[in-house]
Structure formats: structure tokens, C-alpha cells
Design a protein that fits this description.
- Its main location: endoplasmic reticulum.
- The protein has 431 residues and is of the alpha+beta class.
- The protein is built from eleven helices and 22 strands.
- The longest helix is centred in the last third of the chain and has 13 residues, at 370-382.
- Bound molecules: calcium ion (2 copies).
Length: 431
């Protein structure tokens, strides 16, 4: 007599329904109530509050269970009835099960794997085009939902509202995840099913992941970068005349839209209602932006992909940019004012007057006061005879120029102080 199964579907139909059924040499975790034919309960995994975990089909179980559990799907319930010779035979188990007892097991299968399993990748949704696939050593930000094989939830990055961030292929995450995160596109979704020997093993972890549990992660990749990445610059539009290119010291005006790699909007000059004004090379913006705005002409449009080490780093910007995020800037340069040569804050456009000091000393008292100095420089700039470095506060520059000339810092420049400065400076210095 075979053990009778009161399961509606034959194994084959079950496999079609659930994808995988219990086979000989699999490892399974299940709950059961064991009763005699009269309904007397002799054993229950439920009352012990832990699953029964075992290999199947290789003699670890009584013969009737070794046969009766074959072909089950995870989540399936079965009632398996055994005759005594497939259970504990003529003598019973010596305590609760009498001799010649038929046994009834009410079983639900929770987990199933084989020690030979590797990870399983399925349910992939791959973006078109796939602009980048993760490689060993990359840094990835991703979201995940984690469940056990029977659907029991154990963890989710979505519920914390922040991505899980890690290096890939370097042993920072469980082995199965390290494998499953390789070759994944930015924006891709995939399900990674990980057997316990590539996850938390026989011990499990915490209160939610039992020993020998198979884990199922549904992940969504937000971004990928490598610490060796530089800024990626793609020019999407160049005006026909594009000869004057931005360089260090230039004062440029731009519009931009900023987003994360998954399209999340970060900010836009259009919504701020003003341009983004930058003196290149002055340390006013993150290094990636400095690099991305160089050699660009007015009217040009670019997309800049800035990795975090050239952007806002591991910390990000509170409430705006997540830590370690890759940023995407769609930039249009709308204005460029050429800067002064490196190190200069003021230059003469034409020849310097031979009698500067006298011209500056308007009230002819032999000293140049700050107001006389400032008035004079502003007039030269307005008349087109001199130029201040663009993008900075003109009053601050002029104040600095004055202090440089006022050697003894008494608030006025004498003819001697002025001469000293003029002697040691080549033409076209600050004054
Ligand atoms: Ca004076
Ligand atoms: Ca002085």
C-alpha cells in the first residue's frame, strides 16, 4: 500500500503551477501536525514554534514521509496518511505512537532548496537602452524587498525610504547577493533567489531569517558608479559658431535641470527663476561641475553625469541629494564673460597712464584715500580702459587692490608706497 495523498493535483501539474517541486535529496522546511487515525495529536512542529528541517528521500525520515512529501510545492498543504509499515511499524515509537498505528500528517511546505543550487535570477525588467552593467568593484545603490520562499516578508529598503548602498563583488553582502548584483543594468529590476549556503546558512540571522532559509530579493537598481569614474560629458547641441570656449577664470551663466539616474528630479534653474552663475576654476562648484562646464561655448547643451566623488560625496546634500548618488545635469550655457589671466583681478585694456598717482589724488593732498582710489578704478572700468575679474564683488576686489598698495595699512596710499609697488611690478599688473 502506498501512502495516500489527498492532494488534488498530480506532481506534474504541481510543477507547472509552482515551478519547482520537492525532489529526492532536496532540503525542505515544513510544519506539520501528526495525529493517529482517531484524531489524537502525537506531535506538532507548530507547538514547538519552529519548522521541521530535513533532507528528503534519503532515509532521514520515516519511509512514508520520505515518499509523501515528494512533489510538493512551497506553500502547498497536504494530508499524508501512512500505514504502520511506512511509519513506526509493529512496535510504535515507544512513547506516543502505539504499535500498528496508521499516522496522519497535516503538512504545509515552507521552504525548499538543494545543496547544489546556485542563485536564480528571474523576472528581469531591463531598461532599453542598458547604459551600463555593474561589474566587480562598482558601487551600487539599489532598492529591495526581501521575502522568504513562502512569501513571508523580512526586510525592505523601500520601507526605510533609502537605498541599500554597497560595493559589488567584494564580499560586503552575502555571497548570493554579490553574484546577483553583477551584470545588472542601471534601472534594471530582477528577482534574485538565494539558497541558504549563499545566504545566512544553517544559523539564519536575526528574528526574521530562520536557519536554512532560501531568500528572495526583488531588487531595483537606482545607480551604479565606479570610484575610478570621471565626469561623463555628452554634448547634445552645439551652435554653428562655437569657437569661444569656456576656460578657467571665465564667468559663465547656465541653465540646468538636475536629476538622479532613476529620473528623480533634484532641481532646476528654470524653477528657481535665475541662471546658475559660476566663475570657472574658483572652487565655487563641485569638481565634476568644473570639469563639465569647461571648453563649452555659449548656446551649447550638454548632459553631465557626475559620480559622487566628484559631486556631493557619501554625505550628499540633506533633503536634496542622497549620499553616494550619481547626478545627471542637463546644462545649457547662456552667457560667457571672459575672465582675466590667471591670478589677476584687474587689468588695463590700454596703456597705463604715466601719471596714475596724480590722477587718483583728486583733492591733491599727496595721498590717495580709499574713496579716491575706488572712484578712479570704477571710472576706468566704466570707460573701458580697465577690467575687473568677472563674477566677483567689484567692491571687494577694489578694497583688496587698495590694501595691496597701502603698504603700512594706515588707510591711505602715499606716492612712495605707490612707487614701490609700480617698480616691482611688470606692466599690466593690478595697477
Ligand atoms: Ca587725496
Ligand atoms: Ca599708507
Amino acid at each position: 500500500m502506498e501512502p495516500r495523498r489527498h492532494s488534488p493535483d498530480p506532481d506534474l501539474l504541481q510543477a507547472e503551477k509552482c515551478g519547482r517541486t520537492v525532489q529526492v535529496s532536496d532540503f525542505i522546511r515544513y510544519h506539520y501536525n501528526g495525529t493517529l487515525l482517531d484524531g489524537t495529536l502525537f506531535d506538532s512542529s507548530h507547538t514547538r514554534m519552529r519548522t521541521y528541517d530535513t533532507y528528503i528521500g534519503i532515509g532521514w525520515l520515516i519511509a512514508g514521509m520520505d515518499q509523501g512529501l515528494l512533489g510538493m510545492c512551497v506553500g502547498e498543504k497536504r494530508i499524508i496518511t501512512l500505514p504502520p509499515f511506512l511509519g513506526y511499524g509493529e512496535n510504535g515509537d515507544g512513547s506516543d505512537i502505539p504499535g500498528q498505528a496508521s499516522l496522519v500528517f497535516d503538512v504545509v511546505l515552507l521552504d525548499l532548496h538543494n545543496p547544489k543550487d546556485s542563485i536564480l535570477v528571474e523576472n528581469q525588467v531591463i531598461p532599453e537602452p542598458c547604459i551600463r552593467k555593474s561589474q566587480e568593484g562598482d558601487f551600487m545603490r539599489y532598492h529591495y524587498n526581501g521575502t522568504l520562499l513562502d512569501g513571508t516578508f523580512f526586510d525592505s529598503s523601500y520601507s526605510r525610504n533609502r537605498t541599500y548602498d554597497t560595493y559589488v563583488g567584494k564580499g560586503y553582502v552575502i555571497a548570493g547577493m554579490d553574484q546577483g548584483l553583477l551584470g545588472v543594468c542601471i534601472g534594471e529590476r530582477r528577482r534574485i533567489t538565494i539558497p541558504p549556503h549563499l545566504a545566512y546558512g544553517e544559523e539564519g540571522t536575526g528574528t526574521k531569517i530562520p536557519g536554512s532559509a532560501v531568500l528572495v530579493f526583488d531588487i531595483q537598481v537606482i545607480d551604479i558608479h565606479n570610484p575610478a569614474d570621471t565626469v561623463q560629458i555628452t554634448s547634445s547641441f552645439k551652435p554653428e559658431s562655437c569657437s569661444t570656449l569656456s576656460k578657467k577664470g571665465d564667468f559663465i551663466k547656465c541653465h540646468y535641470n538636475a536629476s538622479l539616474m532613476d529620473g528623480t528630479h533634484i532641481g532646476s534653474t528654470h524653477s528657481y527663476g535665475r541662471t546658475y552663475d559660476v566663475v570657472l576654476g574658483a572652487g565655487q562648484v563641485v569638481p565634476g561641475m568644473e570639469m563639465g562646464l569647461k571648453d563649452m561655448c555659449v548656446g551649447e547643451k550638454r548632459t553631465l553625469v557626475i559620480p559622487p566623488h566628484l559631486g556631493y560625496g557619501e554625505r550628499g546634500v540633506e533633503g536634496e541629494v542622497p549620499g553616494s548618488a550619481v547626478l545627471v545635469f542637463d546644462v545649457e550655457m547662456v552667457g560667457l564673460e571672459e575672465g582675466l589671466p590667471d591670478g589677476y583681478m584687474f587689468i588695463w585694456n590700454s596703456d597705463v597712464s604715466p601719471d596714475l598717482f596724480t590722477e587718483m589724488d583728486k583733492n591733491k593732498d599727496g595721498k590717495v584715500e580709499p574713496s579716491e582710489f575706488s572712484d578712479y578704478i570704477v571710472r576706468q572700468v566704466n570707460d573701458g580702459k580697465g577690467r575687473l575679474a568677472p563674477g566677483f564683488d567689484a567692491h571687494k576686489i577694489i578694497e583688496n587692490m587698495f590694501s595691496n598698495q597701502d603698504r603700512n595699512s594706515d588707510g591711505q596710499i602715499t606716492a612712495d608706497e605707490f612707487k614701490l609697488k609700480a617698480d616691482e611690478s611688470p606692466a599690466h599688473d593690478e595697477l
